[in-house]
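G., the chain you wanted modeled:
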Amino acid sequence: MCVNDIIVQGATPLFFLDYFATGMLQKEIAEAVISGIAEGCRQAECALIGGETAEMPGLYQRSDYDLAGFSVGAVERDALLTGKHVTVGDIVLGLASTGLHSNGFSLVRRVIEIINADLSAPSPFSDEKSLGAALLEPTRIYVRSCLSALAAGGLHALAHITGGGLIENLPRVLPQHLSASIDPTCWPRLPVFDWIAREGGVTEPEMLRTFNCGIGMVIFAAEDSVNAIETALTEKGESVYRIGHVVSRNDGPAISIDGGSK
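Predicted structure as tokens:
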């Protein structure tokens, strides 16, 4: 999540530090956590340069742990992505997510409670995984692919789709006079989101405001550069969808989805 937030500034992640706090340090848990962090750093091509491990039995139960971290990146000042170059006619590209991407878990846990789901049981929406493992599918790291897309030229803005979904994250990179028209039929929605909506009775507007719904990163690209940007992304293994375009906002909303203002 940290390095994806850095890349949307046009910056390259340099290093990451972690903070691991627990009631009692259990070697096998700590090893698994640090191994996962190291793999994330390899994917982001940044260094894991240290961190903090704290035992606090007065605050945490024996096996509970809390994990946090931060990353630092760098970009030349004149290459900083601010969204100021986004213009009418730009194509909106969406990069496929791998799942929940560490967002919306309060609602997911509520759904699990409502249906009394067994997290160790086979997932109803993901082959060969338990429900718990499927819900915890790691967040996709877009650093390498987005750096490649930036090098292709014509990339005007990036938006990391976290909590708030497309509706709340896209306006952050749009100039006030512009709007993004998004068509949700242009990409396949991952089965996990259909499961949440169905089992939890979650409405479509609430789904769109809580989850990424299958799109983890959005790119605003100049129309004459979009083919080169798509090629750069697919060569790095991304699934890329043309999900909309930029229009004049006038007095309308910042984002319109499937013909409805949001």
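Residues 2-79 form a domain with the 60s Ribosomal Protein L30; Chain: A; fold (CATH 3.30.1330.10).

Shout if anything looks off.
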